[in-house]
What does this fold into?
Amino acid sequence: MKKQKEIIGLTKKLIKISSVKDNPKELKKVVDFCVSNFSTDKFDIKRFESNNKHSLVITFKKQKNPDFFLVGHLDVVEAEKKEFRPELKNNKLYGRGAKDNKGPSAAMITLMKDFASENKNLSVGLMLTTDEEVGGFNGINYLLNKKNYSCKLAFIPDGGNDFEIISSEKGLIHFKLTAKGIEAHGARPFEGENAIDKIMEVYKDIKKKFPNPKNMEDWKSSLNLGTIKGGRATNIVAGEAEIYLDIRFTEEKKKEDILKEIKEIIKERARMEVIISGNPFYTSPNNSYIIKYKKVLKEVLKREPIFKKCPTGSDARFFSEKGIPAIITNCKGGGTHGKDEWVDIDSLGSLYEILKKFILNNF
It folds into this structure.
């Protein structure tokens, strides 16, 4: 398949760029490379930068609210140097970002270029950002809330596997708790107040409020203690301690309600600092766009679509907060965020075909 080869070639070039969060030079480089794929006489190209995170918006004409936005991200999680050397093996393309999210982004870039070459002046745009892996606040959030971009529907190939449709994603709250104690000699703990003891009591009380789910199908809020720091030496009663917590919550609750509950548990025992937070994502399976997408998916893949709930989050939450429905899915692949990340090359071709048919039928 000609288009499949083109998409694979583009994905390989993207993988070779080590666009990790702590390398602003490479984050800019990957956006520079994407810009070079688009001609200025056929596209309106807008570049943005917020806190060293680069974004790109491509449309067929000057507009901030096309009917449809294709949404991808070009940043990846940290990896060894060898993972930025793409490798084709057994119909799979291996490399950091192959599935998350450079392969799907390459398919969308190719589709936009083909629409232009076919002189299809559609109300469709492409958003590419470089901070999804660190929260998306300087990418999609910035574009929607600071630059006032909008659409009727967003397509985000960044969730699920093998074209599952994600109907729900959990919201998240990352926060730090700090407790103060009184230092004393470790041989005379009765003369001090141990901050580690205090912070762990607070943690235990929060944990009671958020008992963890048993598995992926147990759709309820979860709590994870990520890191803990405290004390200066083994023989000193700890004068200060801090913990970093990660709460994921379902669409049944609001972020503000979760924060209120936590503060009521903490009371005056610790100081709370929210690091990042985001609301859950939900799109009804009965949404008119979802129904149309399911039909195209079935025609191309020759199978019934599968809906899944996902405990992780994506940039879809920023669209959801604006009341904009989104379709979250992804190609067939595996090893995401791991040493052997891969994407099925036939799956990338299917993504291109599904998107093209869906857009031409509806936009």
